[in-house]
Structure formats: structure tokens, C-alpha cells
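quick one before i forget lol
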Amino acid sequence: MKNYTITVNGNVYDVTVEEGASTGALSAAPKAAPKAAPKAAPKAAAPAGAQGAVAVSAPMPGKILAVKASAGQAVKKGDVIMVLEAMKMENDIVAPQDGTIATINVAVGDSVEPGSALATMN
């Protein structure tokens, strides 16, 4: 048997794999391992307490092509905040609700991962 530690979507698992099974099949039984401390997200260049209550997150990995809104700007639900290029397609990132943009956490040309905080709103 061999033991491996595997991380999937930030969750850490200890996995034991049996070797030499006569049918050629391997059995794996994942057990939750103690969670490693998550990496701290980079802070936006905004004063303390300026973060908004509603986070606007990246739905997929990609590159920021344009930022259409700025901090302090009032937006309506569905207004385009920025444009994200993913797989050679331009995707509009829109406001999830009416409100005011509190922070913009990315700049044109930044690469983002799924779930990255792109902006916050109040």
C-alpha cells in the first residue's frame, strides 16, 4: 500500500492505494486530512474597511481586458463592471445587484483564477 496526500479545490485528502490487485483494479479510500492553512489573498490597494459587502468573483480563469467601472460609481444590476477574456472569448462581468462599487481589485492585463475577488460592492 502507498499513501498519498492530494489537494483538490483547496481540500487536503490522505489517500491509500493498494498495489498488486489481481484484477488490475486499484482501490482508494480518501480520508479527510487536517486542513492546511489557506494562503492569504493579496490585499487590494484600498484603505482598511473600504471593502464592500458583496464580492464580485471571477467565474473562470482568464485575463482582464477592460475595467468599465470605478470605485464609488453607482451601478444597476446587470451593468458591465469589467471584461474577462477566457478561451479567446470576451465575457462581461456584471453587477449582481444595484449598488455602489466599493473596490476594484484587478487591473487590465491581470490574470485571474476562478473565485478570485474582482471587485466589491455595497
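fyi The chain has no helices and eleven strands.
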